[in-house]
Write a structure and sequence with these properties.
alpha+beta, Nuclear Transport Factor 2, Chain: A, 47% strand
Length: 140
């Protein structure tokens, strides 16, 4: 793998990570599910069992009550291990409110994701995405 190939993979993966947050905030659950491989695994930052497969991920996201959210993603670090596999981690700040509300209903959450990614014919996709929470921040 050339240094340029590595930089391109890192950029594509960083974009996927950011796109995941934007699609999540837009409530585009079908598109969020497409960021995973067909048998991808997702563990939400709040924890719980792994959700396996695009359809199960989509259905799980659709089952949540409607909300307005903003995921701020930062500190993205991508480790490309081969032309077909990579790992990544990032930090996240999440603020959410009930649909139609302007006031957050709960504290802001700080955590992040640890990812295993694979290159597919459609580009890089999450094979495993594990979210975690570090702490809650009370909003004024």
């Amino acid at each position: 793998m050339t240094p340029l190939d590595r930089l391109l993979a890192e950029q594509e993966i960083s974009r996927l990570i950011t796109q995941f947050a934007l699609l999540n905030d837009a409530g585009d659950w079908a598109a969020v599910a497409q960021t995973f491989t067909a048998e991808g695994k997702f563990i939400r930052p709040a924890g719980g069992d792994a959700i396996t497969g695009r359809e199960a991920i989509r259905a799980s996201l659709e089952s949540r009550p409607p909300r307005k959210s903003c995921h701020l993603i930062t500190n993205i670090v991508v480790d490309v291990s081969s032309p077909e596999e990579a790992g990544a981690r990032c930090s996240m700040l999440l603020v959410a409110a009930p649909a139609g509300a302007l006031d957050a209903a709960s504290p802001a959450l700080i955590g992040g994701f640890r990812d295993k990614l694979v290159r597919t014919p459609d580009g890089w996709r999450f094979a495993e995405r594990t979210g975690f929470l570090d702490f809650k921040v009370a909003l004024p």
